[in-house]
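Structure tokens please, single chain.
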Amino acid sequence: MTDNAVVQIALKTMMVALQLSAPILLTALAVGFAISLFQSMTQIQEFTLAFVPKVVAVGVALLVSGNWMLHTMISFTQELFAMIPSLLA
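Here you go.
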């Protein structure tokens, strides 16, 4: 196993992790920004007003993108297992 192979695997792993976390993080960011803007305009500082919509939005994002995320993880894992014989040589 060469240094180049380790770097390539680490780079691919980080890219897959970024792809899988992006829909959830971007949804939470957008909803959090919208709720924060609403709270600053109305001067309402209630914790549940910020928490509950984010949880609901992240749940919806998981339902919408969950199938794609699962297929991405499975294909990446299959690629890693397929690379094992070439890495051992």
